[in-house]
Amino acid sequence: MNLILHLLLDAAVIFGLAYFMPQVDVKNFGTAILIALLLGLLNFFVGWVIRFPLNLVTFFLLTGIVRIIVTALLLKLIDKFLDSFTIVGFWPALLIALAVAVAGMLIDRSAPTPEMIQSGYEAILNLRLPFA
């Protein structure tokens, strides 16, 4: 269920930003879903190969930033594969990658997985401090 939410939300973010950014062109929402699916698959199979050396260079201190940059690179790679998806320049790809990361973070916080609930993740979020 969480995977479907992520795919639909990523597709909506990509399609919505393509509507507002003239440097990005997506033919239709079906193409946006295909882009989100390819992005997820590439992140799973290829992304770690790119992320690991970059994280070694930064001593694992900039993991989030490295993940966003690698996602932008993968979006540019998807741009080369698909004719119905175009990104002109690296900065729009970086903005889309940042928006996808923020949207993914929000969906993870609002819909935790059963493993997160068992580990006490939800209890930590609802923790009230006496001085807050």
Automatic annotation (TrEMBL):
Annotated protein name in UniProt: Phage holin family protein
Q: Which Pfam families match?
A: Phage_holin_4_2 (PF04020)
Which PANTHER family does this entry report, sorted A to Z?
SLR0284 PROTEIN
Q: Which residues cross the membrane?
A: 6-22, 29-50, 56-75, 87-107
The UniProt keyword set, sorted, is: Membrane, Transmembrane, Transmembrane helix
Its source organism is Spirosoma flavum
